[in-house]
Amino acid sequence: MRTDDDSSFSISRLAQLFGMARETVTKRIAQIGARPAGKKSGYPVYQLKDVADIKTFGATDPVGLSLDEMMPKERRDWYASENDRLKFEKEQGVLVDKEEAREDYAVLGRALTETVQSFPDRMERDFGATPKEVERLISLCDSLQTLIAENFSE
User: Fold this and answer.
1) Cα-Cα-Cα-Cα dihedral of 141, 143, 148, 150, to 10°?
2) Class of the 1-59 domain?
3) What tens digit of pLDDT does each residue of 111-133 get?
4) Measuring CA to CA, which of 14, 29, 137, 153 is 20 to 30 A from 91?
């Protein structure tokens, strides 16, 4: 069957569209079992709707295998690429060092605790809260401090 349909694409055009090598496109089309929609200039062409899954097929790793199923070289290459990705993301500020994050959370936790501790006193001084209101605020603030301590220690 011959087609001149604009929605049919050759292997080369699909490779351009998906940003993949032609060999990868060919392999993934075979893996998903897509059939050509026809031929253009003697080459098979595929409907985009039939081959759209090749973009994500096997995306978790190079050959659709778990790490345990990969050959040693594939596994080494995968780990090397992951290390490079993590290094790049850290350089770009996307990833933060665990200790740096802990320090930031500790600073935030201390600031919250200090603010919560001083809240009843400020309410009494600045707004004339009664002793009964201050006691209730102290009770609420103690509960809040406990909650903060539990959540920041995780």
Assistant:
1) 160
2) mainly alpha
3) 888 899 999 999 999 999 999 99
4) 153
CA angle, 130 then 134 then 135, to 5°: 120
Helices 131-152 + 98-127 axis angle, to 10: 180
* Segments making up each domain of the chain, as ranges: 1-59, 61-95, 98-152
Please name which of 25, 23, 21, 24 lies closest in space to residue 9, comparing C-alpha atoms.
25
**SS3 (DSSP) at 60:** coil
Residues contacting residue 130 through CB under 8 Å, at least 6 positions apart: none
Strand order in the sheet with 43-47: 8-10, 43-47, 38-40
Q: In angstroms, what CA-CA distances link 151 with 101, 105, 109, 114, 115? A: 14, 10, 9, 16, 17
